[in-house]
Amino acid sequence: MCTLALAFQVFPDAPVVVAANRDELLDRPSTPPERQDGSPAIIAPRDEEAGGTWIGYNDQGLFAAITNRWTDTDLAGERSRGLLMLDVLRQPDVDTAAATVETAVTRDEYEGFYLVAADAASAVVFEWDGELQVSSLDPGLHVVMNTGFDDRFRHPAHRPEAAKRQADSARLVRERLGPRADETAPDWLNRAGEVLGDHDVGVCVHGDVYGTRSSSLIAISADGEVTYRFADGPPCRTSFESINEQV
């Protein structure tokens, strides 16, 4: 997944509201979101190649998502980042999720990532490029890409032009998805679904071997009620279907 927009504590009816596109190799197998029983139970799509996930939430109200981080650092990638995501989603809250990530990067070397964890009380971004940085997020709209988040973008030497285009797209997403007066979380998600598929914004990607594979719209209320709509394909031409009725 390469684009994540998080509206944190913006809407009184839902403190965690998310719109996200996943970009990946077109032939990498995956399955739509499903319930994974355990404690806590997880609702997330599955990467069938490595067995992990890139976005999801659990029945304790914790949300998490991960994007690749473009970096010039040579990292071994000993363990899948998607499996780290499952470790995070087995935690009850952001604090324990943070401890999980901090321990995980001392045990295994992962390829670069930005990992977002959020619940009703707090939200953080973990940045990994061989060193771990943790940033708390204030209430408001935040956009995470492969090159950074909000206004903190890095242009790696091996792909500077692509990084600049991505930073420009992130700024457009923030402009288009700025919350409006009296707007509800469902209203915002409807707009977000359109923005994620708008080619003028540039986050719906089409290529011969790589592109936008799916899109997620998620709202988690303070009492844990969740709305999850999933497009199993690029959002420019794929309808969002309700996941809640299926899990």
Q: Structural class given helices, strands, pairing?
A: alpha+beta
Strand count, sense and barrel status of the largest sheet are:
7 strands, antiparallel
Sequence stretches where pLDDT stays below 50 over 5 or more residues: none
- What's the CATH architecture name? 4-Layer Sandwich
Order of helices and strands: EEEEEEHHEEEEEEHHEEE
Number of strands: 15
Look at the structure and give the CATH class.
Alpha Beta
Helices, by number, come to 4
Query: In the CATH scheme, what's the topology name?
Result: Penicillin V Acylase, Chain A
Helix content: 10-25%
**What is the overall shape?**
globular
The CATH H-level superfamily is: Penicillin V Acylase, Chain A
Tell me the span between the first and last alpha carbons: 22 Å
Number of domains: 1
Arrangement of strands in the largest sheet: 3-4-5-6-7-8-9
